[in-house]
Amino acid sequence: MKRQVTLVTVLGVLSAGCSIGSTGPVRAGAPASGLREPGSATHHAQLYFVSPHGIQAVAREVDTAATPQQALDLLLEGPDAAERARGLVTEVPPIHGRLVAQGAGGAVDVHLPMRVASMARDGLGLSQIICTAAYAEATNGTQLPDVDVRVYEEGYGTPWAVRCNAAGIVVPVPERVPSRGATRE
Length: 185
What we know:
Layout: H1 2-16, E1 43-51, E2 54-62, H2 68-76, H3 81-85, E3 100-104, E4 107-111, H4 124-138, E5 148-152, E6 160-164, E7 170-172
Parallel strand pairs: 4-5
Antiparallel strand pairs: 1-2, 3-4, 5-6, 6-7
Helix pairs in contact: 2-4
């Protein structure tokens, strides 16, 4: 028994050194890349384009956190070459006039220089605008499903409010029900 334990120990020590050469470190390719330097920050604007399967979010690297206006300006430029290669397109029609977006306090006011009815047959262009503006405001501390987007159409004085959910679907803002005991004015 003692002889078996000694034999197993010797074999274990001998096999532990197998396959290890004495050459030292060997170059195996380029150094690691893709990591940011400590203290540097990368910002992304999330834009919504249309794929064969519906609305799809894409991230574009930007120098600073994008405001709703900056994000919409990028959206209006359309998909870049890499996004087009992935089959992404825009349904936002050419906009004559200035599309203005102002975000504050977890909400965005979007002023369209046209009527929504003239935008597109299926509403995807409007969804692109609303979700892009909402996401830019959401990066300022409010969660995406809670960002109200108030849309002002040309020719209408009263805005209508919607939200964009995480799937890129635009939904009406739920009516706020008064708490028990409160009276409606």
